Amino acid sequence: MASRKTTDDRRARIEAMRRAEQSRERRSRIITIAVSGLVVAGLVGFGVYVLNKESEQQEQRVALAKKPIKAEKSWDAKKLGRNHVKEAVSYPQTPPVGGDHNQAWLNCDRNVYKEAVPNENAVHSLEHGAVWVTYNDKASKDDVKKLEEKVKETSYSFISPVQDQADPLMLTAWGKQVSVDGADDKRVLQFFEKYVQGDQTPEPGAACTGGVTAK
């Protein structure tokens, strides 16, 4: 009898342990499912937030590009020459906003030039839809550095010094030009949004690499 009772007690303990283990497994599954659900919900929510944020930013960029730029100067793009020439060109603006130019464009894919670049090559880059940022020795080093960083993150843009320009900081696209008060001037972002491969571009989609690089 004692042996049978011992066997029954052992079976009871084993069964109790089995039920406890099953209970722990069920709790673990429930917790795993709950946590997974929260993670998925979080990821979905984050994804929706990111998409909404990107959509909002895109709408802001579109709206910004539609607004007129204060104190901007414009030239009739159709009246700006587009012939390829080998000789130097005497441009009426400094920096030039368009006109006849060298057959080789200046590399304008986030290029930062520390020395003056040939106008004839730079104008060809404008024809391809690039924005040209220029400065002279009256511009602050901090503004120049910020604008260089802006160029480094923006395809179809380049920056170089132009000592004889009228103002310390200027932005130029084909047939468009504006002087800005500093790198944080809101017109900088507006000009980039409006004219990097903008509607003024005579040759949209043309390359900004594979050209020449000024020293």
From TrEMBL:
Pfam families: DUF3105. It comes from the Bacteria. Keywords: Membrane, Transmembrane, Transmembrane helix. Residues 1-22 are annotated as: Disordered. The chain crosses the membrane at residues 30-51. InterPro entries: DUF3105. This is DUF3105 domain-containing protein. It comes from Streptomyces jumonjinensis.
